[in-house]
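Async update (no meeting this week)

Hi team, since we skipped the sync, here's where things stand on the single-chain job. The sequence we agreed to prioritize is pasted below, unchanged from the tracker. I ran it this morning and attached the output directly underneath so nobody has to dig for it. Comments welcome in thread, and please keep replies under the output.
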Amino acid sequence: ALACAVAIAVVLVAFTVVELGRPRRARDPLGDAWRELAGRLARVTRPRAPTEAPGEYATAVLALRPDLAPAVRELVDRYVVLRYERTPAAADIAAFRRAVRRFRPR
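Output:
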């Protein structure tokens, strides 16, 4: 029983050391919202290629689904501005996330 308890303690200590040594992934709510948008678009068109820029993906999506143009252009343009053109305010990110959640292409 003592050997079992020691073995469990060693495993727990090793696990704790490994977990504490891992770098923490920074939260990226804007990136999460973008991945959610890309996932929704992938379900009705095609997946985004890992190297595909947002504008390139939007162009490819709209070639397949021109009926989505107003919403897709607006969302992708907002994402690009928030991600690349300025430091976004938390309220702007939250508004983008809400807009992505409301977007439900069929």
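Quick observations from my side:
The chain has five helices and no strands.
Residues 10 and 89 are 45 Å apart (CA to CA).
Reply here if anything looks off.
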